[in-house]
Write a structure and sequence with these properties.
5 helices, mainly alpha, 154 residues
């Protein structure tokens, strides 16, 4: 795990890149937009999403998720519980905020609205959380930690 601000920036950037890339593709697929958007429009969605996610990770969700997770795991010495706690708190927080971006993006690209912004948001949040949590815990978390330790921490 990162120990300095510089390491946190590297770690957060790599993690956000991977998560936003997969979640952008997932959301474009869910909305039937793959094949309808140009490559540049898809890249634009990715760049905007990445910028928002990195900002949230560094300044809002990241620090608060770490505080909450460390508070919840303060009675354990096992570092894996702390890592899993931080990861879960990060996914819940990031999915909460990034689903707002997803909702806006969906409205812009598809003009689909059920008439209730809250229901649309809850539907998107649920679908994002269901995919983002295992993606983070099983694939991206271990992969990014490996890359971070192998290439950056040394």
């Amino acid at each position: 795990m990162p120990n300095t601000k510089k390491e946190s920036l590297y770690f957060g950037s790599i993690m956000c890149f991977g998560m936003v890339l997969f979640m952008t593709i997932y959301n474009l697929y869910l909305n039937g937009m793959i094949g309808h958007l140009s490559f540049l429009e898809g890249m634009g969605d990715f760049v905007i999403g990445f910028s928002i996610a990195l900002t949230l990770d560094l300044f809002l969700v990241g620090p608060n998720a770490k505080k909450i997770a460390l508070k919840l795991t303060e009675n354990t010495e096992n570092p894996i519980f702390k890592v899993i706690g931080i990861s879960v708190c990060m996914v819940v927080g990031m999915a909460f905020f990034m689903s707002i971006y997803g909702l806006i993006s969906t409205y812009i690209h598809t003009n689909k609205a059920t008439g209730s912004i809250l229901l649309d948001y809850m539907f998107i949040y649920g679908k994002n959380l269901i995919v983002a949590l295992p993606l983070q815990l099983i694939i991206m978390g271990p992969l990014v930690r490996f890359v971070f330790i192998k290439f950056i921490k040394e």
